[in-house]
Amino acid sequence: MNQPLRTGAARGVPLSRAQSLLLTTALASVAAGLFVPGVALAADECGAAQQGVVTCSETGNPYSDGIEYVTPAVDPTQDPGLDPAAPVYDLTINLDPGVAVERADGAGVALIGFNNGAVTLNAGSGASIAVTGTGSIGVLASTSAGDITINTSSLTATGRASSGINANSYSGDITIDAWTVQVSGDGGLGISAGSYAGDVVIRAGSVEATGYYAGGVNAYVGNGDLVLVADSVTTGGGSVYGIGSDAVVLTAVGGDITVALGTASTEAAYSTGVRAVSYGAEGGVSVTLGAVETQGFGSTAVLMQGGGVALDAGAISTSGDFGYGAVMFGVGDDGAALNAGAISTEGANATAAIVKTYYGGAATVTVGAVETQGAGSRGV
User: Fold this and answer.
1) Entry pTM
2) Hey, CA dihedral for 53, 56, 60, 66, is it positive or negative?
3) Which of 2, 111, 114, 281 satisfies CB 3.0 to 4.6 Å to 332 for a cystine?
4) In 215-243, which positions are buried (b, 16+ CB within 10 angstroms) versus exposed (e)?
């Protein structure tokens, strides 16, 4: 580990195969979201949107065909799907308390924003969304230039390659507030969000993903900042051909990444608890967490890179052979700072922490206790 991760997205960023697939999916979703199985544009399950606003009541339960809307044209004779200059209303979907969306083989709630249209889903306390089937998505939101706002209370997705929330925009900001997200199935993903030119903010209670090469939270910003605040993110399940089940994967191209996380944990081999990387020497990465634990072979609890990186953790632990506690690369003037209450490793040939700086930044390490148990293991 003598070199930081490459600092140019166009120069072969060494993502794992699973992360590459997730990132590719995020970047393609603006277009692909329009062709998800079961998404029929302007389905109007809750009646026509009045100037872009629609409210869904319990009378439509269980909404077995899902709820699907697009930003409506201000002029009904125009088609914003074909005319990029057509003015549109912003779209807001409200789910009343007691609404239960239960969809098989498709999207539970789909919001598509054409042109400059923003989309908002309010599915708060008492409303639930559950989807089943391969590739099913609890909430699918896609815009070109409009912002995306998603508020959910209870969200479950079951099936191979299913996901709880998938939100993507070219230049709009994305804000997600999700209380509980549970995903079960190989290749499943709890929350995925990506904006090429906007900011992304994710606030969550608990996110849990179970299955081979599953993921908890995966987010990307091309020219913006990224924020994650969550109580807990966990993945459970196995790995396949070196593809693990990462809890948190956050990627920025030059922007800042800020994380405030209660706990993160993984079980599978080759998995990462928190991966927060901003490519380039300008973006800062700050991670504050209570505890992070990885159990599998070759897993890493925390991996960070940025112009300046700062990790403040209560407890960091790894139990698998060839595991890493904290790996930090500071590639700008702000360097790297590790502050942890305790770091422990149990497996053979494990490493408690690696903290490196490049191009003049300083490295500082403050750890209350370091414990390594396996043969061939190293401290800091």
Assistant:
1) 0.89
2) positive
3) 281
4) bbbbbbbbebbbbbebbbbbbbbbbbeeb
pLDDT in tens, the chain (380 residues): 344 543 333 323 333 433 343 333 333 333 334 444 444 444 689 999 999 999 999 999 999 999 999 999 999 999 998 999 999 999 999 999 999 999 999 999 999 999 999 999 999 899 999 999 999 999 999 999 999 999 999 999 999 999 999 999 999 999 999 999 999 999 999 999 999 999 999 999 999 999 999 999 999 999 999 999 999 999 998 888 778 999 999 999 999 999 999 999 999 999 999 999 999 899 999 999 999 999 999 999 999 999 999 999 999 999 999 999 999 999 999 999 999 999 999 999 999 999 999 988 999 999 999 999 989 889 88
Amino acid, res. 319: S
With beta carbons less than 8 A apart as the criterion, state whether 330 and 361 touch: yes
